[in-house]
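Usage

Read records sequentially. Each one opens with the input sequence:
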Amino acid sequence: MGVCLSSPQLDHKRARLALWGLVAATAADSLGATMILPILPLFVRQAGASYAEVGLVTAVFWAGGLAVRYPVGRLSDRVGRKGPIIVSQLIYAAATAAFAVSPSPLWFVILRAIQGAAAGAATVLAMAAVADFVPLERRGRAYGSLTGAKMGGTVVGPLIGAALFQVSLAATFLASALTALVVAGVILGTLPKGSPIPAEEDPEPSPTPLWRDPIVVGVTTTSAAVGVLIGMYDTVWSLLMHARHATDLEIGLSFTLFALPFTLGSWPAGWLADHVDNRWLIGTSCLASGCFAIVYPFLPDPAWLIGLGVFEGIFTVTGAPARLAMLSRRIPAAQMGRVQGLYGSAQVAAAALASLLAGALFGAGIALPFIAIAVVMWLAAGLLLPLWRGVNGRPVRVPRQLPDSGIAGPS
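and closes with the structure output:
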């Protein structure tokens, strides 16, 4: 990593191609992964698995991703991102296709763990690769583009999966596997080895150990808080909607309409991350998430829940690009893999733990998991005040002689 290519203009073109390749790959990756989400529990049950085994199949996906994120990120700091991303996609494709011919629930558990490991590795590597090719002053927009691509795939994937399910179970798994192969091909053709970012534009290594660096600690803490939010909502949101007498269509619509503001607003949110103090964007997003969470369980009508979910997406979309951009401006590319592994591991571990607790909290009282989300998000925002006092969260302004490449999206 860190190799400068010979021609600045060639560097610019290759960097632009690399980022748009990552954007396309992220969208396809998300689409392929979410194709199987609506049908996986049904498939596992039809194959004779118990409800406990269905839950285990879900849990091992998180566990597989958690186990590999940091070591794979650290490895990529030494060997580069391109090869590991391609390998992870090939492994994911093989495990997904194998679902169609798996003989027993035990194999479902094994294959889902492999899927989780491959998907977790691919996510870390894609986020780390941005620091290899995108100038410091445009990384907010780059991460916004990747976030929007991921959410766009999430919106479309389940719809395609549900349609393929009407054809056959095998068709859905094979289509998801084929999508992973397409992603591998895109990365093979667009992601160069090395880094076109000149060495002088890479941030200097921090003299403070990563685990004590205030930016790393703050961003990782808020990532864990978001993990709690994701784990809780994934477990209890449908239960809340059902308790408010929502139809299946309304429940599905609530997920789609929540994702749309993230899909449409991620690039503008990335632009803000390149122009506004990231500390304020991250803190405000945490506070807003807590405020919305505390209101949801007291709304009696599904229409209000759906509508408020749309507004939550609008007001909180700035958080992810700002967290990633602030982190990447602090950490040099040679350390970005391990730091992205730490960041992702914190979020996945928190989501897994929250998923385990959410059902019990909901059973004890409908409002309890939502109150827990609010408290966690507010505590995370409050922690940032002393932690980031004196920290520079303003976007970087790097003088450049080359014309704007537009590699992070339209200007």
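Summary fields computed downstream for this record:
- The first helix runs from residue 8 to 35.
- Residues 97 and 344 are 26 Å apart (CA to CA).
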